[in-house]
Design a protein that fits this description.
The complex is a heterodimer of chains A (about 425) and B (about 625). Chain A is of the alpha+beta class. Chain A is elongated, with a radius of gyration of 34 Å. Chain B is mostly helical and about 625 residues long. A two-stranded antiparallel sheet of chain B has the order 1-2. The longest helix of chain B has about 35 residues. Chain B is globular. The chains are: A alpha+beta (about 425), B mainly alpha (about 625). At the A-B interface, helix 3, helix 4, helix 5, helix 6 and strand 7 of A face helix 6, strand 1, helix 10, helix 11 and helix 12 of B.
Chain lengths: ~425, ~625
């Protein structure tokens, strides 16, 4: 009896403490509110530095800890009281956790719906390339299948957790195995995955193993990556990108082109990747320093640029930039390519614009491209000089005017200067 | 004190098989250079927890950078100095943060912290062994791991900063100090630390394998081992076979960096300087790294799967559904995990033919994973579930394993991987399936075996708080990241400020960062609960969860050698929960069938005709209803 009295006294005391704490806080809050109201007229308190101070957040966190501690103590007191009064435990935590699982399921399902509809609408538009359409189609099939499994298994998981929680009234059902059932859920996923594998495999083959059509040769464009810029080289009139050798790289010959190779003489540099719509394009990807990744998400194109190795990706764009702008209803829309393999401090800003245009526009644009070869280079490679009016600086210039510093003098030009002095 | 009680309870014959134990132990031999597997397990666990807190702190730093790329946080400059000049993290340091976060989490927390803790604790205890096959090597394993941690952390205190080429340290970025400052001394320390770490893992792994294969107690045949042990055993096999390949790769890397060889380097021009290296290939490193790297992710997840199997079975009061299928799927995962590494390299320029092959093997490995998931669900069905904190974490683990596993089907498909590779979709995928799922498995293990480790109970209510907030926040952090990936946002970007299309994700980043901060703060509840309960928790009973496995037959008080008397003999599998006819809803593995005639079933005897005959005669005499139900 005395024990009970003691505990109930303790309860009362604890409750009193809690009530006082809350009363005080609310009183403080009221005072603060009143004070704020009063001073709001006189001079508004600048809260910004307070929100910026670490101490403010530390205090908030300590307050939260205190709150949890008080809550814990209150629960403890409550439970001890029930125990001392020989009543059944006040809170059945099994039920609480079971119910939270159901709530989590409901809120979670809504959350998934929200994510799919809201963030799902912010993702890349439909593929702008031929093979990209196949990829998108396969993505959608995979998405539907996995979403069904995702939702189904989670409903099962959380509802089982709720329905089969311990209530003290049942014994679990001894059910160690069922071979038929296990066979089903081995074979069904295996079959579904086989279908996905086959689709993936065929698509993969169709992307990387192209049969060369001699009448319909792809346009070759070479992309060279380096920290942290891209160099785009067009093949010129002959349609062939000339040979290069990294050992020939100098300030004036940023790519290391070997001008003994005639194919190099008409090669051109460009500052953006301009490609004609509905024409196959063959990208030749190389790197000068570290591994980069050529990533052009709108076209579902990605391949690493590896030093010492050349890799190729062939694709066919199907929609012009102008059409895409109307399609996504954004006149400022641009196709881009950028780096997606960690390559150093400037990794986050290594981009170039891609313009898909009609064949006529492309022809006009490509005709204006400056040739790379100039008299300095001709001299180096002992080639006959040609009179050309002030074409020299154009050689290196487009190579490096990235979006990061479009206005600045390019570093290649800077590199050219000492070389020119020589 | 324990020594005295021990000697009182000693049987005379006990000294024969365990002659070396029970000297007076000094503080150093008991707590520091301990050769007792239980102490080593605790050392691994606490080191793992400390490393996890550090790595989590690093992740909060770079999450802050991603959420508020233009804001200045003066406190960062106070702590980080020149790496956060003006209160803003520098790009190089951002990359160092992601690199070290990944390295610590994958290797130090989820490999050493998880396998090291629970393999050490449970392999001897659940198999009825007095200690590991080689206790001295076991001790070395911990101390090599400890040195690896120290070396890795020391790179924060050097001029050029820690390694910053990503946790996969692809050359040439990682090989050339000119490419990024972190590839100077920081990378050397990373490599040395990793060699130490692999040495530690090999010593641990060889110990686990030999203990499991050679030292099981009487009656404990392989098919009576708990699934935890199966998982730890296969994990150790994976580690022993794949970690040496990483060392080989790392040594070649050290040669390339310091002695001018060209294993990974060729045709490189840094600035305008042409490097002399010729003939190597960065792809070689990628192959060597991922030959370990992919088994590594299963090294991370399989112990978590094993722990969850045990915890779910105990707390559903049901046998794990499809025990054999569970074991075979673990074996399947183990074998297949060696031939899927190429799916990390679909777009590296590796021969596309290989891409097709690796896609097939990768998607096959989804089948055993699916079997495991469905078996977990079937175990919950008609169970009698007690939501202990361990059970909550195990259920959370299953949820993450599903969510993260399903996105693996996208990434394992080479064609889809073209556009998803190295984007936030990958980040979301592996943080769910390998990060969250594995850490939840680990936490389930901590809550479940805490009474075994420290003889006291953790507070359940703080456990509930810890679980729910972490579970919700982990989804809030990682679910939205999938959509960044689907929008083509690459990972390891220092800021989203330079691309117009990424601007729309900044609000999402802020939301994700806040969720991560809340998730990080709630870990304080766990840390408090953990360290407070070591000293002040409620004293545990011998078998607090009414589990069947052998570890709960040892006394609460730790003794060197685990069992005071003879080692118990095992008579049955570990999952006889809620068996019809049994008095209680669990029958420990040490109980012979002769004591449970009422509940025995024909399949218990595995075709032993004599036993079946005895049982049938007994049933005919004492239990006619069962005869009808079971034998006809």
């Amino acid at each position: 009896m005395s024990l009970r009295k003691f505990i109930s006294n303790k309860t009362i005391a604890a409750l009193a403490v809690i009530v006082t704490v809350f009363a005080n806080t609310s009183a403080f809050a009221q005072e603060a509110a009143a004070g704020a109201a009063a001073s709001a007229v006189a001079k508004p308190i600048d809260m910004v530095p307070i929100y910026k101070s670490v101490a403010f957040y530390a205090m908030l966190f300590l307050l939260a800890c205190l709150f949890i501690a008080i809550l814990g103590k209150a629960l403890r007191v409550y439970e001890l009281t029930r125990e001392a009064q020989d009543k059944p435990a006040g809170i059945n935590w099994n039920t609480v956790n079971g119910v939270i699982f159901v709530l989590f399921l409901l809120v979670g399902l809504y959350g998934v719906y929200f994510e799919y509809t809201v963030h799902g609408n912010m993702i890349l538009p439909d593929a702008a390339s031929e093979h990209g359409k196949k990829i998108d189609q396969m993505f959608n099939i995979t998405l539907i299948l996995t979403t069904i499994v995702f939702i189904g298994t989670h409903i099962t998981l959380f509802l089982f957790s709720y329905f089969y929680k311990n209530t003290g009234k049942r014994k679990a059902y001894y059910y160690p195995h069922n071979n038929a059932l296990e066979r089903i859920w081995t074979i069904v996923p295996a079959l579904v995955l086989t279908v996905l594998v086959l689709m993936g495999f065929l698509t993969w083959r169709s992307i990387f193993f192209k049969i060369e059509d001699p009448n319909h040769k792809p346009l070759s464009i070479e992309i060279t990556s380096q920290q942290f810029l891209w160099t785009i080289r067009y093949p010129g009139a002959d349609g062939v990108v000339g040979l290069k050798n990294y050992k020939l790289i100098t300030g004036t010959n940023a790519l290391g082109m070997d001008f003994k190779d005639k194919n190099n003489l008409d090669d051109e540099l460009a500052d953006e990747l301009v490609i004609p719509v509905n024409k196959p394009v063959r990208l030749i990807l190389t790197s000068k320093d570290v591994v980069h990744s050529f990533y052009m998400p709108h076209f579902r194109v990605q391949l690493n640029c590896v030093p010492g190795m050349t890799s190729y990706f062939e694709f066919t764009p199907t929609i012009t930039t102008a059409d895409m702008q109307t399609k996504v209803n954004d006149p400022g829309f641009k196709f881009l390519f950028y780096c997606s393999k960690i390559c150093g401090s400037g990794h986050y800003n290594m981009q170039k614009v891609v313009r898909v245009v009609s064949q006529a526009e492309y022809d006009a644009w490509v005709a204006k491209l400056p040739k790379i070869v100039n008299n300095d280079l001709r001299k180096q490679f002992n080639l006959p000089l040609v009179a050309e009016p002030a074409a020299a600086p154009a050689a290196g210039a487009p190579a490096d005017s990235t979006a990061k510093a479009p206005k600045k003098d390019s570093s290649a030009v800077a590199m050219n200067k000492p070389a020119l002095k020589k | 004190m324990s020594t005295i009680t021990l000697n009182d309870t000693h049987h005379n014959d006990h000294h024969d098989d365990h002659a070396h134990g029970h000297h007076e132990q000094s503080f150093i031999t008991k707590y520091i250079f301990s050769q007792d597997h239980k102490m080593i397990a605790k050392q691994f666990l606490i080191t793992g927890i400390i490393m996890a807190v550090i790595a989590m702190g690093l992740s909060i730093l770079f999450r802050i950078q991603l959420a508020w790329p233009d804001k200045s946080f003066p406190i960062l400059e106070t702590f980080l100095g020149k790496w956060a000049e003006g209160g803003r993290i520098k790009p190089e340091f951002y990359l160092a943060l992601v690199t070290i976060h990944g390295t610590i989490m994958v290797f130090f927390v989820l490999t050493a912290g998880l396998s090291g803790t629970f393999s050490n604790l449970l392999i001897p205890l659940q198999l009825g062994v007095r200690d590991m096959a080689s206790p001295f090597m076991n001790m070395l394993s911990y101390w090599f791991f400890f040195i690896a941690c120290i070396i890795m952390m020391s790179s924060f205190f050097i001029e050029t900063g820690p390694a910053s080429a990503g946790w996969t340290i692809y050359p040439p970025l990682s090989a050339l100090p000119k490419a990024i400052p972190g590839s100077g001394l920081g990378m050397t320390l990373w490599l040395v630390s990793m060699v130490m770490f692999v040495a530690s893992q090999l010593m641990g792994g060889i110990n686990y394998v030999s203990t499991v294969l050679n030292m099981r107690t009487k009656g404990m045949d392989l098919w009576k081992m708990p699934l935890t042990i199966w998982a730890f055993f296969l994990t150790a096999v994976l580690g022993v076979l794949s970690f040496p390949v990483l060392v080989a790769g790392v040594v070649l890397m050290i040669f390339d960096r310091s002695f001018g060889t060209s294993f990974y380097l060729s045709d490189i021009v840094m600035g305008s300087q042409v490097l002399p290296n010729e003939g190597g290939s960065p792809i070689l490193w990628e192959h060597l790294f991922w030959f370990l790297g992919h088994p590594e992710v299963y090294i991370v997840i399989m112990p978590a799967l094993g722990i969850s199997s045990e915890v779910i079975s105990v707390n559903s009061r049901k046998p794990i559904f499809g025990y054999h299928a569970m074991v075979y799927s673990l074996i399947g995962i183990t074998v297949l995990s060696f031939i899927v590494w190429g799916h990390h390299m679909f777009v590296t320029g590796m021969n596309p033919l290989l891409g097709g092959v690796f896609m097939i093997t990768t998607l096959i490995i989804a089948v055993p994973s699916a079997v495991k998931t469905f078996n977990y669900l079937a175990t919950l069905w008609r169970g009698n579930i007690r939501f202990t904190p361990a059970m909550l974490f195990a259920i959370g683990m299953v949820s993450f394993f599903i969510s993260g596993g399903l996105t693996g089907i996208f990434l394992g498909n080479a064609s889809l991987d073209i556009n998803l590779h190295d984007t936030y979709f990958v980040v979301a995928h592996f943080h769910l399936v390998m990060g969250s799922a594995a850490i939840f498995g680990m936490l389930a293990g901590v809550y479940h075996w805490f009474p075994k480790m420290f003889g006291r109970m953790m507070d359940a209510k703080l456990g509930y708080l810890h679980f729910w907030v972490t579970f919700i926040c982990a989804y809030l952090v990682f679910f939205p990241l999938h959509f960044l990936g689907l929008d083509g946002v690459p990972r390891r970007y220092y800021a989203f400020t330079e691309f117009e299309f990424m601007q729309k994700w900044v609000t999402v980043n802020i939301f994700v960062t806040w969720s991560a901060i809340v998730a990080a703060l709630v870990q304080v509840a766990f840390l408090f609960n953990f360290f407070y309960s070591i000293f002040k928790g409620k004293v545990a009973t011998q078998n607090p969860w009414q589990a069947n496995t052998l570890e709960w037959t040892t006394p609460v008080e730790h003794i060197h050698g685990n069992w005071p008397g003879e080692i118990p003999t095992v008579h049955r599998w570990p999952y006889d929960y809620s068996k019809p006819g049994a008095e209680e809803d669990f029958i420990p593995q040490t109980v012979p069938y002769s004591e449970t005639m009422m509940s025995n079933m024909p399949h218990d005897f595995e075709g032993n005709a004599e036993s079946e005959r005895i049982q049938r005669e007994w049933d005919a005499k004492n239990n006619p209803t069962k005869v009808n139900a079971e034998f006809h």
